[in-house]
Design brief:
Elements: E1 7-10, E2 24-34, E3 37-47, E4 52-55, H1 63-91, H2 95-101
Helix pairs in contact: 1-2
């Protein structure tokens, strides 16, 4: 039984000896069109930028896990139906109307 264990790596994007602009600064450009006129908004951002890389290997297909997941989903739907029926038939203020109109 092999499990998927992802690996995480972190990298420093700056050189470390930046005296004029320490940290990360970059420009983000957004282009859009409004009333047949093209606009471009440029935003200069300052601060820290985190780049997180996640790598891993996917597991192989297992038919038993597939049917277990399908069965669990069906079970959750049945439980939700039972709870909602209990609420509508016993607790709700219009319970008499629900009882009259319930399809059996």
């Amino acid at each position: 039984n092999q499990e998927c264990f992802p690996t995480y790596t972190f990298d420093l994007l700056q050189s470390g000896d930046d005296k004029l602009s320490p940290g990360v600064n970059f420009r983000f450009v957004e282009k859009y069109r409004l009333n047949e006129t093209d606009y471009r908004t440029t935003t200069k951002m300052y601060g820290l930028r985190f780049v997180l890389t996640v790598a891993g290997h996917g597991g192989r297909f297992d038919i038993r896990r597939l049917f277990l997941a399908i069965g669990s989903g069906i079970g959750y739907m049945i439980i939700a139906e039972l709870i909602s029926e209990f609420i509508f038939m016993r607790i709700h203020r219009h319970r008499e109307e629900f009882r009259r109109n319930k399809i059996k």
